[in-house]
Amino acid sequence: MLMHVPHGLVRLCAPLTLVAALATSLPDAIQAQEPPRPSAHRAVFDPVDYGADPSGKTDSSPAFQRLVADMGKLRRAKIVIPPGVYLLSAPIEISASGNLETYGLAIEGAGQDVTELLVDNPQGGILWQGEQMNMLSVSVSDLSIVAARDHAGVGLQFSKRLLGVKHRTQFLAENVLIRGARFDVGSFDTGLVVRGAWYPRLRNVQVAGPYGVDEERTLNTMSEGILLEDSYNPMISYCRVWSAGDGLIHRSGEVPVEDGSIINSYFVGVKRGIVVQLKEAGQWEEPGLRISRCHIAYRDYGVTIRGNRQATIDHCLFYCMDRAGAAFPMYQDSEPRDFIPVDIDLEAAGDVIIDGNLFTEPANPARVAVRIGKQSGYVLIRGNQFNLEGLAVRNLSPQPSWSQGNFFGGRRNFTRSGPRHDDQTGTLVIDELN
Question: What pTM, to 2 d.p., does this model score?
Answer without folding.
Answer: 0.88
